[in-house]
Design a protein that fits this description.
Elements lengths: L1 E12 L2 E7 L13 E6 L8 E6 L9 E7 L5 H8 L6 E8 L12 E6 L4 H12 L7 E7 L8 H10 L3 E7 L8 E2 L3 H8 L7 E7 H13 L8 E6 L1
């Protein structure tokens, strides 16, 4: 485990904050887009530290910083710590980045990045990395689901990446409101029509709330998609 410092805190939405974290003992932090870090918290009631995993939302950039986004969860030990007890300059204990929820070495088919809530974190990292490094890909579809327009994360940034990267397509599903320019419904309503007539199966990455992932796995399994080969998942409880 390593010690890091909270370098900046950005209120992204009413209940989501971005935390810029710096490890002052390292020249740079090496990681792949899609990996996660563990944060550790010592509490008086626990015999061992409380730990939570967060996908890294920033793209690798040869610095000693990384970014995570955290949703305020009432009663959650880690979110209470991060929202109510830390400030810029506070120290945190972390391990990583690590994990296998990463891009293939050769991207030889379309990518569907399907997420809800803070599950957008690894996909923001992936899309920024691919775009910033001019890596050749086929079509990339980022499909993000949330309740209302006020819950959108990284909206302006991702719309700008859509302009820069001709292969990147950004889709939004709002489940609670009907807003002009957005799909009213769920992420499944977007990806299912898109893959209906594709000749070759794309590679699906699913990240976010468990119910969304279970429904997507069922939908894709019925169409002949296989776990690992065609579907990769990262579940947020």
């Amino acid at each position: 485990m390593d010690m890091a410092i909270i370098k900046d805190i950005i209120q992204e939405t009413r209940n989501v904050r971005r935390f810029i974290i710096e490890d002052p003992l390292k020249d740079k932090i090496i990681y792949e887009p899609g990996q996660l870090i563990n944060l550790y918290l010592n509490t008086p009631m626990d015999s061992k530290p409380h730990v939570r995993s967060y996908s890294v939302a920033s793209a690798p950039n040869d610095t000693n910083e990384f970014e995570i986004i955290v949703t305020d969860q009432p009663g959650g030990l880690m979110s209470d710590f991060l929202f109510n007890q830390v400030d810029i300059g506070s120290e945190v204990i972390y391990k990583g980045p690590m994990g296998m929820f990463t891009l293939p070495e050769e991207i030889d088919r379309d990518l569907f990045l399907v997420c809800t809530g803070s599950g957008i974190s690894p996909f923001r990292s992936m899309v920024k990395f691919l775009t910033n490094n001019n890596i050749s890909t086929k079509n990339i579809h980022l499909i993000f689901g949330c309740r209302t327009k006020e819950d959108l994360l990284y909206f302006d940034e991702l719309k700008e990446l859509e302009k820069i990267n001709p292969n990147f397509n950004y889709h939004i599903a709002l489940s609670r409101v009907d807003e002009e320019g957005f799909h009213n419904g769920y992420v499944h309503d977007i990806y299912l029509p898109l893959i209906k007539d594709l000749k070759d199966k794309p590679l699906f990455y699913l990240c976010g709330w468990r119910n969304m992932i279970l429904d997507a796995k069922d939908n894709l399994s019925e169409l002949g998609y296989k776990m690992v080969k065609d579907i990769k998942i990262e579940v947020y409880n």
